[in-house]
Amino acid sequence: MTHTARIAVIGAGAWGTALALQAARAGAEVCLWARDPATMSAGRVMPRLPGYALPAAITVTGTLPRQADLILLACPAQHLRATARTVPPCAPMIACCKGIEQATGLMPLQVLAELFPHSMLGVLSGPNFAHEVAAGLPAAAVLACAERTQARRLADLLTTPAFRLYASDDPTGVQIGGAAKNVVAIAAGAAMGARLGENARAALITRSIAELGRLSHALGGRLETLSGLAGIGDLLLTCTGLASRNYRLGLAIGNGTPAQEAANALEGVAEGMATAPALHDLARRHGVNAPVIATVASLLAGTTTMADASRQLLARPVGHEFA
Ligand SMILES: NC(=O)c1ccc[n+]([C@@H]2O[C@H](COP(=O)([O-])OP(=O)(O)OC[C@H]3O[C@@H](n4cnc5c(N)ncnc54)[C@H](O)[C@@H]3O)[C@@H](O)[C@H]2O)c1
Ligand SMILES: O=P(O)(O)OC[C@H](O)CO
């Protein structure tokens, strides 16, 4: 592409703001769409990502873009449908959220495909805390489209030496990894909050990879994707990093705080809260054995206590590791 790329970012939360900064760093002209007038009038620093002044290449606006080379949808998964519905599909659309729509059990690209059956669609995911990407610290992620060449072309628009965007043609695996890591992070946090120990956390994370593999496979994704950035990469980050909201939500639940109270106390969205029941339902409908996801869904619904959850997981029969 010889002209300066125009990238529209929909959603000026922490991730949308970090992506806008990254797009500007990659040389694009950026339009950052904010839903909330208070965010728009905040000036050059977005309230959800304080400490990072926006450069001149980024325009903050409340008007949806009518022309762009790429549209990044960076709102939470539960609001993707309502938000995307208002966006003119003037360019390839990339879902940057990590979750499953609770009302339908659909992955973000399935939601977008219902709205925009003729648009080029993709998903971006990986181990990326917004504040680190905003600071320009080294990071990697994956951009997946149905066709690898399209994914590569779109990834190039956002790639810089410090932000390495790999291409993939397995959007299903990438979306399951991105959604499920939030649920596993709640489990890992809960284990640490309940003082079950670091061995327990490592076991939970590793066994959950088998679980995500089964679920992804049942939905048409590839196993190898879960050994990549959107799978193990994001599990490593989110299940161990205190910067993760999902992990902190789990910590509070493990400490005995009721789930809703813990979620209300968080700054920002913890996608695992709505995605755990959605994934649990998806696993049930596809006949996939997913005990960690089921346990987190019960903890969040308040139908099991931390002590019972731990007892039930430990009471499961021990079989072959990769059966
Ligand atoms: N923050 C991160 O480090 C990070 C990194 C990678 C991916 N993500 C993903 O990006 C997505 C957005 O997360 P975030 O951290 O930017 O959010 P955030 O917690 O910073 O802010 C919440 C966002 O939700 C929007 N919102 C609230 N109610 C809404 C509604 N009714 N309709 C539409 N939008 C509404 C707000 O405008 C705001 O943009 C999530 O799926 C998250 O998993 C976040
Ligand atoms: O704060 P969390 O738990 O939403 O995690 C943020 C990112 O998804 C990490 O990759």
Would you mind describing this structure in some detail?
With 323 residues, the protein is of the alpha/beta class. The chain folds into two domains: 6-169, NAD(P)-binding Rossmann-like Domain (Rossmann fold); 177-314, N-(1-d-carboxylethyl)-l-norvaline Dehydrogenase, domain 2, CATH 1.10.1040.10. It is 46% helix and 12% strand. It has helices at 14-25, 37-40, 80-84, 108-115, 130-134, 148-156, 171-193, 198-218, 229-238, 245-254, 259-264, 272-285, 291-301, 306-314, and strands at 6-10, 29-33, 58-61, 70-73, 93-95, 121-125, 139-145, 163-168. The longest helix has 23 residues, at 171-193. The termini are far apart. It binds nicotinamide-adenine-dinucleotide (NAD) and SN-glycerol-3-phosphate (G3P).
List keywords for this structure.
323 residues; alpha/beta; N-(1-d-carboxylethyl)-l-norvaline Dehydrogenase, domain 2; eight-stranded mixed sheet; 46% helix; binds nicotinamide-adenine-dinucleotide; binds SN-glycerol-3-phosphate
